[in-house]
Amino acid sequence: MKNIINNGNTKLILLHPYIQKQTNPNRLWLIALVSVFTIASLLTLVYTRESFHTTTTTTTTITATATNHHHHHEPLPKSVIKALIHYAATANTTNHMSQTDIKQISDVLKQCTTPCNLLVFGLTPETLLWNALNHHGRTVFIDENRYYAAYVEEKFPEIEAYDVQYTTKISELKELITSVREQTRNECRPVQNLLFSDCKIGLNDLPNQLYELDWDVILVDGPRGYWPEGPGSISAIFTAGVLARSKKGGNHKTHVFVHDYNREVERVSSEEFLCKENLIKSSNDLLAHFVVERVVDQGGRNQFCNSHPAAS
């Protein structure tokens, strides 16, 4: 309502506001319902985004893991292998292997369908090479010199090396062979866990886990054996033969390489414990390649070879 007062030229307009405002109860319920619906929609949106983010992250992680797993088993490129073998064979060091012998071992490592378990007796000029060629596999080195083994591990942390004490002497070769023959049904049997053996030439002081591994390739290139009082490789060759025959899983065949096969202790020990019938190849009498099968029948658990050669 407007009240207009005329006083000469002055006009006064009075406005009377509508003070009392009625509230409709139905409108309050409507506002409440709309608010609840809005909050529920926001919560649904947030949950959906989080769920999508989690699913995407999980899918990405699984894909990356699968990709890494695929690459994990990829072998070294052939060009890299050739380069490694070439420079290792032509290095300015003494007592290194020839390119032919290195390639023979490399070819066997490439045949592994899964990452190889490679056991090497002796830390030699080829130590880094064997570790590199056994790409993604496990390579373990055994040496008689604890100080040199510790030095190598400190300088090259990727190398896994252990030291052992050899009790044999090259000058006792004939007596040692005779002793083992007398114990093939007891402490020196071809199939056993050497960790619990008291066989004189068996290595029973390696880390426990190494006796449980299924070795695919074993290389005997140590210990030293070029003087009568030296330990020679008789214990290493015997141990390699037992580990190969005592495998519980993996490939039923083990490739055993013996370097310096032209020397008496390597040749006699190999013929005694790895056996001529298992000899695949020997290159210039320097590297001998044996393939020894896991023993599963009871008849072959008490002898190494079909026929024993005469001990020298």
From TrEMBL:
The keyword Membrane applies. GO terms for cellular component: Golgi membrane. It holds the Pfam family IRX15_IRX15L_GXM. The chain crosses the membrane at residues 28-47. GO terms for biological process: xylan biosynthetic process. It is a single-pass membrane protein. It comes from the Eukaryota. It is found in: Golgi apparatus membrane. Its main location: Golgi. Keywords: Membrane, Transmembrane, Transmembrane helix. This is Polysaccharide biosynthesis domain-containing protein. It comes from Lactuca virosa. The lineage of its organism: Eukaryota, Viridiplantae, Streptophyta, Embryophyta, Tracheophyta.
